[in-house]
Amino acid sequence: MAESIPEDNYEYRVTPESMSFTENLMHIGWAKDWHSKSLLGGLAARDWDAFTELKGGEKSEKEMISSIERTFEETIRFIMDYDVDKLDDT
Questions:
Q1: CA separation for the pair 12, 28 (Å, rounded)
Q2: % the chain with pLDDT above 70
Q3: Residue at 42 is within a domain
Q4: Does 1 fall in a domain?
Q5: Residues sharing a CB contact under 8 Å with residue 44, sequence separation 6 or more, in sequence order
Q6: 24-62: b or e for each residue (b if 16 or more CB lie within 10 Å)?
Q7: Which pTM does this prediction carry?
């Protein structure tokens, strides 16, 4: 989807209060990172204000897509290596 949206539409918002396409795209990456590395991986949650890797900001469309692809690859590796016995942990 990120590749099919023209870059000049990345800041489109359905309503003024909603997230832009860029913000939604980066939010997907942030959620995958947080769920796998923090919730299941035991790492401290990243500080959204300080962690700019998964923010749109001045990134180009290609840079954002690269960031999202990287989070998909990292999440897939995490899932493949995850000890499913940990799913019983509370």
A1: 17
A2: 93
A3: yes
A4: no
A5: 38
A6: bbbeebbebbbebbeebeeeeeeeeeeeeebbbeebebe
A7: 0.71
